[in-house]
Amino acid sequence: MCKLLIGTVHTSIEAYAKWSFFNADFGPRRGQKVVHDIRTGSGLVQFQAVSYARNNPVRVMQSYGVSHYMLVP
What we know:
Order of helices and strands: EEEE
Shape: globular
Distance between the termini: 36 Å
Helix content: under 10%
Number of helices: 0
Largest sheet: 4 strands, antiparallel
Structural class: mainly beta
């Protein structure tokens, strides 16, 4: 089982560089997904997601992360 801490940060009309963290557990099957709702507000949003090692006193990044601009209705 793969256990990660997912960190997301978004900048929008409602928040500037607001961080959210949640746990993600993946089993042995391929194609599993984790769904987590994040309220960004409407309009232009910059959204970034990064995975970290869980149960570690220091946040060690497990991925470089991905960042996107999107329009939210």
